[in-house]
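help with this:

***
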Amino acid sequence: MTRRFTRTAGKINRLFPACLGMTALFPAVAAAADAPAVDSGTTAWMLMSTALVLLMVPGLAMFYGGLVRTRNVLGTMMHSFAAMGIVGVLWVVCGYCMSFGSNMLGGWCGWNPDYLLLRGIDETILDAGVPEYVFAMFQGKFAIITPALIAGAFAERVRFGGYCVYTILWSLLVYNPLCHWVWAADGFLFNMGAAGAIDFAGGTVVHISAGISGLVAALYLGARRGYPATAMHPNSMVMTLMGAGLLWVGWFGFNAGSSVSSGLDTARALTVTQVAAAAGATTWIVIEMLHLGKATTLGLVSGILAGLVVITPAAGVVVPAGALALGIIAALVCYASLLLKERLGYDDSLDAFGIHGVAGIVGALALTFFIRDSWMASAVAAAGGNWGVGQQFWVQLKAVLLTVGYTTVVSLALVVLVEKLFGFRLSEAEEMSGMDYSLHGERGYGLINPD
């Protein structure tokens, strides 16, 4: 989103011309003497973007659901749909408050009593001309999809109740603080260096945090029984392809909506999103043709996701040539990471870390080398002439390291806590029967003998 730098003394604002990342468009700003009017065009686009991001959640459910064995298709899809409900409630109750309220506990999270249950924003119009309700709901969809992404790492082997408890705790203790650090106006990563850590639409907040958390959980809980000796074939690549298509479409709202505008910045973000996704898909096809002698549907959707993830933090600052390069780089690095997973033998079931975590890290760091000239000129001016690629890369690296470190420690503590107190890992009998029947008493396809 268009980044607004607020200064208490004299209420001076600097607005960079090319998006520097998401912003918390606080009611305090909108409630100034000349409160903005609703911009119907921007509001319409933000409403559409909110719906597109929510569409990604059933898209993810289909993507993951098609990749697991028949006995686990409903249980896997339940993870995504349960997040829609659980996090949807949490976000209204306190998530928006913790993410976009003013600094509390030394800046660990935000707090503003008016944001609890969204009770203080009923008449608030943001500077962008958008009702704050719309902005809050748009942001809430990011909070929903992130724990749903994590579930791909430990698919086919966790209890539904344990997953629900983990989702609640993870959202409160990992997602909301990270969101505040990166996107709130007084977040310390938002204000790091001359221009802040660049994360336009969720490279650190969503993808790195989800990938790292998923890897931690997968390593602690252990591999699926029989992995890797037993073949675990997807039950429906058709469903996975359709899910990938919905994710691609929804990602336009995810990235282009993050401009909180309906203009040049929106067009830029939408364009580079398309370019990076196409580059990732094409590169993965070429790699598989060279390495395996044939292109696979699983490879194609992996390339699409790698391209979409890598451009997410960079969508506001790179030009199409940079997006093309990032898509190619992400496909190469993610393909290598999946080969490494096979050699190391850990069970990141649906490659939550191998795609989201790895491509998120690549995007957050590599974007530094593809920043458009106008953005860099603004950063140099803000720093008084002493700013360049090296300084920005150092800011990006620190943001990535802090995200990885914090997420690793807290996620491990939460996995251990949930496993010890509530039970997280399925028993052998439950896992062999499958999540659908043992946890939900249902079968996805009505088959008598699934798998």
